[in-house]
Amino acid sequence: MNWGLIGASTIASEHMIGAIRSNSGHDVVSVLSSSPTRGKEYAAKHGIAASTTSLSDILNGSDVDAVYISTTNEKHLPQAMAAIAAGKHVLCEKPLAMTVADAATMVRAAQGSDVVLATNHHLRNAGSHLAIRNLITTGRLGEVLSIRIFHAVMLPEHLRGWRIDNPLAGGGVIPDIVVHDADTVRFYLGEDPADIVAQELSGAMGVDVEDSVMSVWTTPSGITVQTHESFTHPFAGSGIEVHGSKGSVIARNVMTQQPVGDILLRTASGEESIEYSPHNLYERSVSKFATAVAGDGQPAATGVDGLKSLAVAEAVKKAAVTGQRTTVDYGGY
């Protein structure tokens, strides 16, 4: 496929252009930027044939089969809807949209068209998380009792900008990181969190948006999930623990874009280091997307997956603001 980039973004530059081109027969042929100067410089730097400030230029071009959307969050809905209407397959960054209702609009539009809509949730593509999910689904942990997620980081300076001061663009740690953790939990368990309590903080970095949040979720089967997300913790590290009736998984430094981190399985027999594939997360995401476009299976994370991770994030935000236990509203999905 030939791809158009909607957004001359850092994540496209650092991860997605290479991931697309690593898949045989795939190339990036056009990029959209709101700045003509930035667009031309970005295209030249990455060997992209064309740059434009017009969405219609990309969508009306017969040479573009799919688009990757990585603009600020408030632009996802109109850009994805235009792409779907133009018959382009869509791989969209998380969160899929600003609201669950908007995400549902995108999902319905794709379902009514002959196009694939996917969410670029990278963690479920990591060898580490695939290995942890396998331990759960094969029964090595027994009945899952609880999960704890540590995802408090120091947001790199070059990624701050709108993420720390612009609620209208979808800034804040909840839409930026909680959605990742929600998708990971859903990927592990195959069920959706039901009820949430939460508290948030702002001011250490965030202006008019939250920069730290802690929350507790319950699932329909009774599993408890505890999460901590932040933009302000330089030395906390990241990790996830899954505790079951027959064993526990303790994974460190795996909530990342890189194929790194350590996984320890602890059971009555002792402790065991779990090996996993060190493949590139984004290359797998693109490969699964391309396979789905070819009519074989689904992308790694579908549009509905993106909607549901966003629904959990919305509930975390509501619970934090109101101080009330909040039921997750999945918009009928």
Could you describe the 3D structure shown?
The chain is an alpha/beta fold and 333 residues long. The protein has 2 domains: 2-121 and 283-300, Rossmann fold, CATH 3.40.50; 123-280 and 310-327, Dihydrodipicolinate Reductase, domain 2. The protein is built from 9 helices and 15 strands. It has helices at 10-22, 36-46, 55-59, 76-85, 100-111, 127-137, 173-189, 281-293, 303-322; strands spanning 2-6, 27-32, 50-52, 66-69, 89-92, 117-119, 144-152, 195-201, 212-218, 224-230, 238-244, 247-252, 262-267, 270-273, 326-327. The strands form 2 sheets. The chain has a 9-stranded mixed beta sheet. Strands 3-2-1-4-5-6 form a 6-stranded parallel beta sheet, with helices on both faces. Helix 1 (10-22) crosses helix 8, helix 4 packs parallel to helix 5 (100-111) and helix 7 (173-189) packs across helix 9. The radius of gyration is 20 Å and the shape is globular. Keywords: Oxidoreductase. GO terms for molecular function: nucleotide binding; oxidoreductase activity. Residues 130-249 form the GFO/IDH/MocA-like oxidoreductase domain. Residues 1-121 form the Gfo/Idh/MocA-like oxidoreductase N-terminal domain. This is Gfo/Idh/MocA family oxidoreductase.
Name its key features:
333 residues; alpha/beta; Rossmann fold; Dihydrodipicolinate Reductase, domain 2; 2 domains; nine-stranded mixed beta sheet; six-stranded parallel beta sheet; 9 helices; 34% helix; globular
